[in-house]
Specification:
mainly alpha, 2 helices, Small EDRK-rich factor-like N-terminal domain-containing protein, elongated, SERF-like_N
Length: about 70
């Protein structure tokens, strides 16, 4: 083998780097996670409501065209 201990040192270096990344990430508490999920859900509900209203007006407009 020509690599010697390079593989071992690379593994140790990668493990150290991964540990530093995991340590630096801010952990979300359960309450903030729940708040964020609820806010995201509310945004999606608003988008869906807008999309449904647009479809309803489009359907009414097409129905009015067919009646004429």
């Amino acid at each position: 083998m020509t690599r010697g201990n390079q593989r071992d040192t690379d593994r140790a270096k990668a493990a150290k780097k991964q540990a530093a990344l995991n340590k630096s990430k801010a952990k979300e508490s359960n309450t903030s996670l729940a708040k964020r999920k609820e806010a995201d859900a509310e945004i999606l509900r608003a988008k869906q409501k807008k999309r449904d209203e647009e479809k309803a007006t489009e359907a009414a407009a097409s129905a009015a065209k067919t009646i004429k």
